[in-house]
Design brief:
131 residues; mainly beta; two-stranded antiparallel sheet; 2 helices; 8% helix; elongated
Length: 131
């Protein structure tokens, strides 16, 4: 058994567990995916640690993800207009590196920043001690 994503117009519309023989009888485009693949690396499902398993198509396919046949990869929808796709990992990257700590992205602050280069975007979230 394996995981397969049904692709319609480049978008993942369904993900199922099936054997290859069953998928061969189905209409449409089905592409194999691996739940233990993330960012182009394979992870042990028990420990969560990177292992020497085969990473399939950069990321596990999720509903609404894009399948790019030129990259042979799945990737999530773009989270913010300013973020760019890293084609090596097929993960979205913020235009400014995330600082250490509990931060979230603020696209409005990033777009409003007139400095060159832009420095606004990551906003520290209040911690338990800050309430």
């Amino acid at each position: 058994m394996a995981f397969f994503a049904k692709i319609v117009d480049g978008i993942v519309r369904d993900v199922i567990v099936a054997d290859h023989d069953y998928i061969a009888t189905q209409d449409g485009t089905w592409v194999e995916t691996c739940r233990d693949t993330f960012g182009g690396k394979h992870y042990d499902p028990v420990t969560g640690q990177e292992d020497d398993g085969v990473a399939i198509r950069k990321n596990y396919a999720g509903l609404g993800y894009t399948y790019d046949p030129s990259l042979d990869a799945f990737y999530s929808p773009q989270p913010f207009a300013s973020w760019v796709l890293d084609t090596e990992t097929c993960l979205w990257q913020a235009p400014i590196p995330k600082p250490e700590g509990n931060y979230s992205w603020d696209e409005v602050a990033y777009q409003a920043d007139t400095s060159n280069p832009k420095t606004a975007g990551w906003v520290q979230k209040p911690g338990i001690d800050d309430e």
